[in-house]
Amino acid sequence: MSVWLFALLALFWPFSLSMAAGVHQHGVAQLDMVVEPPLVAIGLSSPLANLIGFEHRPANAAEQQAWHQLQSDLRQVSQLFALPTDADCSLSQVNLHLPFAGTPAASHEHHHDEHSKHQDAHAHTDLMAEYQFLCANTDALRHLELPLLQRFPAIEQLQIQLITPSGQHSRTLHAGETRLSLP
Description:
DUF2796 domain-containing protein, alpha+beta, 5 helices, globular, six-stranded mixed sheet
């Protein structure tokens, strides 16, 4: 990985993290993409409610199943992003920044008082995922298909920040739009 990409990521990801942490809006998610040939890095940040319908620690078997399914789905990159085949990209890394462990809240509730239970029930929780690809032909990256907008219909708006060899760009996609043209 080049020093240039590390520098871009060092500048870009904290901005994204602070945006995600500071602006929690249901129906809105953020996608950050850095293209530094041959690498492509994509970061996704969303309120958990957009992805599974709740933001608290899974409290029952159905919620626990939904939580495990979400983690599995986020590792199935083809359900989220589709880079052009002629770019010849291969996934090199997936990092999920999960808001809590996979155990149900019930196993931990005995340690909390009623005030804590009330706060947990109304907490705003975001999930972040990072994906890195190696691409043999980044010149072929003219668009990005985003099936994630179909997979997670509660995302009504996707705010996109791009850093490409041509500069920094910003886009917004709305529900029903799944194709992002790249500069």
